[in-house]
Amino acid sequence: xxxxGDVAVRKPRFLCLHGFRTSADILQKQVGxxxxxxxxxxxxxxxxxxxxxxxxxxxxxxxxxxYYEWFQFSxxxxxxxxxxxxxxxxxxxxxxxxxxxxxxxxxxxHHDCFPNSSGKPICRIISSPSSSGTEIVxxxxxxxxxxxxxxxxxxxxxxxxxxxxxxxxxxxxxxxCPSIAEKAYSSTIQCPSVHFLGExxxxxxxxxxxxxxxxxxxxxxxxxxxxxxRLDDKSLPVMLGFLERIxxxxxxxxxx
Length: 256
Fold this sequence. Notes:
It is built from seven helices and 13 strands. It is of the alpha/beta class. The strands form four sheets. Strands 2-1-7-11-12-13 form a six-stranded parallel sheet, with helices on both faces. Helix 4 (141-153) crosses helix 5 (178-184). It is globular.
């Protein structure tokens, strides 16, 4: 039993945003393979995306449904659908269940590059066609989490909640919609962040490009593909170092 002078250490609290056509429960199981030396130092809250999956999930047969997605876009892959609704949904959850210190996000979906009408390549995430014949594309929790600090700084998202102070990004990338990207990455993102890059992830290049938008990011390289890896002898010290760094910066009282 502790003495009267003991003060409980507040853990950094992260809202966790799952990947392409998965769910909060699935992400919780994926992150749950990390050791207690990491999980015991953070408070994780897992949120289902607001929209039911519009097509087949890559994790069918591995994880049980239901599956969800955060938003979509169409129209030559330059305009997002339900993006504002997604931001409002996240903010409303943060108001009701916060405060939160940071975001943890996994996955960016399936990227491909195609030229638009100007001849310049833009990246899209392929899914099955909609009933109207227009292809719908999805985004995952990592790409969304990485964009939110910049959008918040510009007053375009999460204006009713405390500033996002920390990020854990697993398999991330930048948003490609020009009107949103120019706001999200207009300035260097200065909040402490740790980024997971899989050596065999066919989307790795997009995660590397994302690093350019961050000030002094911590990086965990792992030998796996587009997945949440276990933390080994090389990656565990990086993760623990990041957590030690943000713990020292953490305000004693939660900020709303």
